[in-house]
Specification:
Layout lengths: L1 H15 L10 H7 L5 H32 L5 H27 L18 H9 L15 H22 L6 H23 L4 H4 L9 H19 L6 E2 L2 E2 L7 H20 L8 H33 L4 H16 L7 H24 L8 H19 L5 H29 L7 H6 L1 H6 L10
Antiparallel strand pairs: 1-2
């Protein structure tokens, strides 16, 4: 009887405190709509953030494995080190500066008694000096503040991971780490604040970007493009008007990395619902999972068919990137499409990757892992694709923010890359070190010491 009473009470609490459909788009509105949440709803929402957060964390392993598999064996250790280090730097800088910079209205304040205060006194003083303090504003009212921070910091780290693969095999370690500091402390949080922090892209343009096709993926893509243009291509990549292929060292590892990223994307998109306290929320989360998976499948299938038709043989690396392209393409709106529409959205993303990679080669833009086609090209496309399935989206409301974010990130990233080039004695390793491989030249250790590159 006691169990029956508990179950009845739980059902009543969920019915009374049911929250509206939410997304990354509107944390402040969500808090206002649930002024008196039950403990059960609070626990379920917190659990969603924590589960989603550790799934997105697992994407860091996916990026590391994908990049380690697609670079040559003489550069594998460097890519692994970069991925571990950039994750640690991203999380630390987002804690010190980025989180409160991204949510200046205070609805995501992290200086609370509940969490012990993530933000240091120095960072808070800086924010208050420029009028961005969060004093007097209540914490997130329908989930744990700590879980909010945990979930959001993983998105920040993902943005930095996108840059790593593009610039592989010829960038120095410490200039790359210095850029990661700026990207995760300032550039990404500013872009995020314009949309998810209640900024002007949200309030003035009605910009829709559910889980970050633009805010996360194209931000990382623009930063990578700026770095690739300033850094230049790898030695021997473009010679006598021809493109020299540099095969990856471990395609099984790259395939594993893709599946890990695919898995992590369920947390990336699913937990961006930001609520699990009602039947409707859980139904929406399940729909997001299905659509996310469908888009990845569509991208992989079309990439396989397109490479067969264009190159006479299927290309595994294109198929891997096709799946990731589908995932990026559906990220801006994974809730409103039907399963068929989600598949088609992802399918066109897979096609874009297949045509974008040779286009970059014609422009002599060397992207080692194909991150620019996947994250930048498909991030832009996915943001536009919102218009196909969400009636609330407007053409200018989607296009103008894409341009604004692109100009801001590309210009600021270029300034940072050029400044690092001037201040740190260049950002590129010497020709001798590049030919030797960064594992030996920069680190003095090899991933595969028994084998020769």
């Amino acid at each position: 009887m006691k169990n029956l009473t508990k179950i009845s009470g739980l059902a009543a609490a969920l019915a009374v405190a049911a929250l509206p459909v939410l997304a990354q788009d509107a944390p402040a509105e969500a808090a206002a709509a649930s002024a008196v949440p039950t403990d059960t709803v609070w626990i379920l929402n917190t659990l969603l953030f924590l589960i989603g957060g550790f799934l997105v964390f697992w994407m860091a392993a996916g990026f590391a494995m994908l990049e380690a598999g697609l670079v040559r064996s003489k550069n594998v250790t460097m890519q692994l080190l970069k991925n571990v280090a950039l994750f640690a730097i991203a999380c630390t800088m987002y804690y010190i500066i980025g989180y409160n910079l991204m949510y200046p209205l205070g609805s995501w304040s992290i200086g609370s008694d509940e969490t012990g205060g993530y933000l240091g006194a120095f960072a808070m003083a800086v924010l208050e000096a420029v009028g961005v303090g969060a004093d007097g504003v209540d914490d997130y009212s329908y989930a744990s503040t700590g879980s909010d921070f945990f979930f959001q910091v993983m998105f920040c780290a993902t943005t930095a991971s996108i840059v790593s693969g593009t610039l592989a095999e010829r960038i120095k370690l410490w200039p790359f780490m210095a850029f990661t500091v700026v990207l995760t402390a300032v550039i990404y949080p500013i872009v995020g604040s314009w949309k998810w922090g209640g900024g002007f892209l949200d309030s003035q343009f009605g910009f829709l970007d559910f889980a970050g096709s633009t805010v996360v993926h194209s931000t990382g893509g623009w930063a990578a493009l700026a770095g690739a243009l300033i850094l230049g291509p790898r030695l021997g990549k473009y010679k006598d008007g021809r493109v020299t292929p540099f095969p990856g060292s471990n395609l099984p590892l790259a395939t594993l990395g893709t599946f890990i990223l695919w898995l992590g994307w369920f947390g990336f998109n699913g937990a961006s619902q930001l609520a699990m306290g009602s039947i409707g929320d859980v139904a929406d989360i399940s729909r997001i999972f299905v659509n996310t998976n469908a888009a990845a499948c569509g991208g992989a299938i079309v990439a396989m068919i397109a490479t067969q038709l264009l190159f006479k043989k299927p290309d595994l690396t294109m198929v891997l990137n096709g799946a990731l392209a589908g995932l990026v393409s559906i990220t801006a709106e994974p809730l409103t499409p039907s399963i068929g529409a989600a598949t088609l959205i992802g399918a066109f993303g897979g096609f874009l990757v297949v045509v974008s990679v040779p286009m970059l080669d014609k422009l002599k833009i060397d992207d080692v892992v194909g991150a620019i086609p996947v994250h930048l090209v498909c991030g832009i496309y996915g943001t536009i694709a919102v218009l196909f399935t969400n009636p609330d989206a407007t053409f200018m409301g989607q296009i103008a923010p894409i341009v604004i974010v692109g100009v801001f990130v590309f210009v600021t990233s270029s300034i940072v890359w050029l400044a690092l080039k001037a201040l740190m004695g260049g950002i590129r390793v010497s020709a001798e070190d590049e030919m030797m491989g960064l594992d030996k030249a920069e680190l003095g250790m090899e991933a595969y010491p028994e084998f020769k590159a």
